[in-house]
Amino acid sequence: MGARAGGSRTGRQGTRRLPEEGEELALSAQLPAVSAVEARLAERGVTLPGVVPPLAAYVPAVISGNLVYTSGQLPLIDGKLPASGKVGAADGGVDAETATALAATCAVNALAAIKSQIGDLDRITRIVKVVGFVASDPSFTGQPGVVNGASELLGAVLGDAGVHARSAVGVAVLPLDSPVEVEVIAEFT
Amino acid sequence: MGARAGGSRTGRQGTRRLPEEGEELALSAQLPAVSAVEARLAERGVTLPGVVPPLAAYVPAVISGNLVYTSGQLPLIDGKLPASGKVGAADGGVDAETATALAATCAVNALAAIKSQIGDLDRITRIVKVVGFVASDPSFTGQPGVVNGASELLGAVLGDAGVHARSAVGVAVLPLDSPVEVEVIAEFT
Amino acid sequence: MGARAGGSRTGRQGTRRLPEEGEELALSAQLPAVSAVEARLAERGVTLPGVVPPLAAYVPAVISGNLVYTSGQLPLIDGKLPASGKVGAADGGVDAETATALAATCAVNALAAIKSQIGDLDRITRIVKVVGFVASDPSFTGQPGVVNGASELLGAVLGDAGVHARSAVGVAVLPLDSPVEVEVIAEFT
């Protein structure tokens, strides 16, 4: 956690629910609170990034009632796309395995966007819906496998609360020529 | 109803609302309860299928509050696509009429997904939103007509409750090279 | 306002909130009530059109709880598309600047659809989510700039309430060969 500990501290300890019996308690009470979700991300070597800044008159996520709607998340890492192009294209595209990893990065960025609104990812009670857009060569039909990168990350770090309804579609092209874009609706308490 | 009566029995009679005066009562009280929605499907020769099993860390539908969000539904029948390819493509594609019928099958599968969560389709108070993705040759612009296959089925079996907001878009390609994918948000009581 | 004053009258004065101190009051109390949102549209030279009639078994917008979900809106003006084709296509397409203006028209049509359900646009407390579909040549990656046309209009006429979560994707083709389609979820009180 050390390198970017500041980024993974929750700013809203007062709203954290108490761990229930048998629940993993990631850190001692004296340390800055880190959500169980972020602890599980850390076990996978992932530090939650800062939220991707808005590019225009929109924001990374909006709360309505007990739902958070994220903007479509690109797999940006430190503001850059690790790869670009269409999945399955004969020339210059990205392969399905690479795209699957990028979809997981989209999901991490979605969690960062959600955290920017609710403060503590342990407040998530359910990932309600995921839509995964895969920039696809018209011959590529493996969108479900690619979007599994996002679905499996959410399941791994959120447990039962991470199991969601989902659509996966193959689109012509995405912003910045990104291979993947993922949007999320999450319920929180 | 006979052939697959088990599949159309509701498992939650206790939660069924009572029929109101003048409302169609499909079966006598002694028989296993069948929802009015499923009775109307039966009139069209459609038996509600079992829910399409999840392919990964996602589920066919999720409840949040009084809404059910379905996953994107392909027009699978007994696990197989009746047709594949892009709509309007000169070679090897499917025509608009075929795609319209497939969109209706997507809607039936969405109803099965909703039933898997709420038990009885008569609990639906409104189809709130439908998004229809049509795998399209770039020259094909008749997506609204194709997605009407889903919209008209929902209107036919749900009446006023089936009239929804809708988006229809033409995408490059869909999972399994399906010509159509439909997702639904339904409100229930 | 004169030319289509009837179209911009609110039919639900009883539900209008009172203007707060310092808030712009567009018209004197004796005139038919015009929402502040429509007054700001008028400052931009935009008269809210009548709602685009449904093409099938769907409607322009549906209320569920305190949310309004719009159907995907095309940039129709008086029932016609001002331009058609894919954005960024070498032959016969539309340029990004034109598409951006069309996206703003989609947003205006979305406001008309919302008004058809809630009567008075000043009841909007938040634009929760915008999805912008841009019919794109596979080489065009500027979807965010195009969809900014919608985002900036919503921000301009709704202020803080207009700042939303958003997804922008590039699709193969849209209904009627429209360059843009925009759908909106709005929260209201």
Automatic annotation (TrEMBL), chains A, B, C:
Superkingdom in the source lineage: Bacteria
Organism listed in the record: Arthrobacter cheniae
Name by which UniProt lists this protein: RidA family protein
Pfam families the record matches: YjgF_endoribonc
InterPro entries: Endoribo_LPSP/chorism_mut-like, RutC-like_sf
Endoribonuclease L-PSP/chorismate mutase-like domain mapped to chain residues: 38-187
Region (Disordered): 1-22
UniProt xrefs under SUPFAM superfamilies: YjgF-like
Residues forming coiled coils: none
Signal peptide: none
